User: Fold this.
Amino acid sequence: KHYLSTYLLYNNQDVLSADGTLVQQDDKNLMDINANITRLPLSIANAFVPDQMATLNGNAEGELLVGGSMEQPVLNGNLSLDSANVYVKMLGARYWLDRRPIRFEDNRLLFDKFSIYTTSPNPFAIDGYVDFRNMERPTANLTLQARNYTLLNAKQTRESLVYGKVLVDLMGTVSGPLDALKMRGNMNLLGTTDVTYVLT
Assistant:
């Protein structure tokens, strides 16, 4: 039996800790690991976004439990976002992510009307799941819905390719394996839209 105890620090602050055991039983390597995430800055991911096309802000918190074998790990737990948002530079727009937890249940990532907001109280909502039970080919089954949603409300800047206001109604589904997703549905552009596209 092997014991695991590890910590991740960011700017001298504990942001992640994991404790658990690794056990060899017959021909299998079994694990039981508990990881706690405390105010992990999402900005860490910005280093991997090409050309700073989008920047992440806010923090993540939660608890993850990893069990099963090394060949077929089982993930459970939850992840909450605190003041999380994404700024898209070429749109000059910021999108705010729901504070309610995203759940992991037996290798399925579950969304329960997970909402994304811009400058109005009407959300873009995601329902459904992403299924990682087959690690070689994960799948998704998601429903997307929005009514009178402010897709864009941005002033013109030097970097803007699009500016103005775009309002939409949307109903759609996304399903199938992640490497061959199928999207079905419709999006209606509302009459209150007033947007400019900058030719370069």
